[in-house]
Amino acid sequence: MTTRFLVLDVGTTGLRAAIVDDRLQIEHFEYRANPPSIPFDGLVEFDAVQLGELALDAARAAHAHVDAPVDAVGITNQRASTILWDRATGRPVGPGIGWQDLRTITECIVAKAEHGWTVAPNQSITKLAWLLQNTPDLAGRDLCFGTIDSWIAWMLTDGSLHVSDGTNMSTTTTGMRVADGSDWADDRLDHYGIERHLLPRVVDSAGIVGRATALPGSPPIAALCGDQQASLIGQACVRPGVAKLTLGTGGMLDLVTGREAPTEIRRNPAGTYALPTWQLDGDLMWGAEGIMLSAGTNIDWLRDDLELIETSAASHDVASSCRDSGGVVYVPALLGLGTPTWDYGARGTLLGLTRGTQRTHIVRSVLEGIAHRSADMVDAAVADTGVTIDTVRLDGGMSQNPTLVQALADAIGVPIEVSPTTEATTRGAAFLAGLGIGVWNSVGDVSALWDPAVSTVPDPGADRTANRARWSDALDRAGQWHPDLSALDF
Q1: What's the pLDDT tens digit per position in 263-276?
Q2: Which end of the chain has fewer CB atoms surrounding its CB within 10 Å, N or C?
Q3: What are the tens digits of pLDDT across the range 278-288?
């Protein structure tokens, strides 16, 4: 008898409710667009009530496609977006603040200068402090803070559950936990005026935490997990040496390192971050994460602004029509550079143009630039963790571009295995839900369910050493365009 899971996967611009079977095959999904609002430059907000209603609508619509209640529910989500609501009324007291929001950048700079704390504006702690300080009439009210997973769990249980898991409540995501993730960081909470009773109960990433009474049959909620960690599990990257790369609007590289926890709250020397990959039986498994600030954004630029391609998919057709980029090198730094250099003042750079440069060369150089930035993250992860990466597994919208996949293999120098679905996050959350109700016995069981759509090896004729050296030179030239921004360090 087939076991089925309902997964709610909440992203930055929309959400998906999917029915997933016990082979991690997606049988049906519902999508609801929910882009954030940007009232002013640097501010990113969303309507949490609308988000919750859309999630319930999508979940019920997906559930209608199965004959019986699903066996378990899994929740996965964009991390660090912040909601503050009234426990009695169940209503938010202010706007939801998106993870991209930069309104607290000054507070982060002050924290570094006065306390030596590494607090980034994408983390939850300063967002929550801003809501507490700038929302009127909060005195005497019983408030709840949560990230998206907390809010969705609250909605699914009709307000009876206020929880989050160890991946969403990590120091990397919230800035509120001690380095090893074992408890809240009281010094930071005190500094920002955050009382413990506001905070969710931290639970395992897999395990029954409550019943989704808002859904038919009240199935158990058996998984909560941040999106990148769910993608890691969904692609069976559960041993050191196998990394996952998600290329969508931006790019995220993640890998498992083991049970050894960090002892300091800081960015690693080569530009990655330590983060928990899952929590089971109260214990955290650890890994490292690298971040590319713009990946698919560069394809949007080619399509919408330069009008060199008609569709995003056409980037493959155009780029594959030439053998190479004709010496053109593009650095995809439209929003600055993340791992390893973390230069917010860097900017996109196109080098090596000649009179013979054609549209095809430019398009190909953009894909190759994204591949080289991915290789930078792999190199940084190896340097920071000491783990040799022998395979990279790829998901996200850009995983469907064969030219990019080959460029990745050539730049990184290891095989690239493409996920059978662009939404590996959904697969990971479904697996965790199954683990939570006993369908599987351990995280390692997911390896038997991995079946890549494509496996691509490096081109033996590619001169990786020369190509990486040229890339390194271009990267240097792209940096420090805006010195004030380049000086920022979070």
Answers
A1: 998 999 999 999 99
A2: N
A3: 999 999 999 99
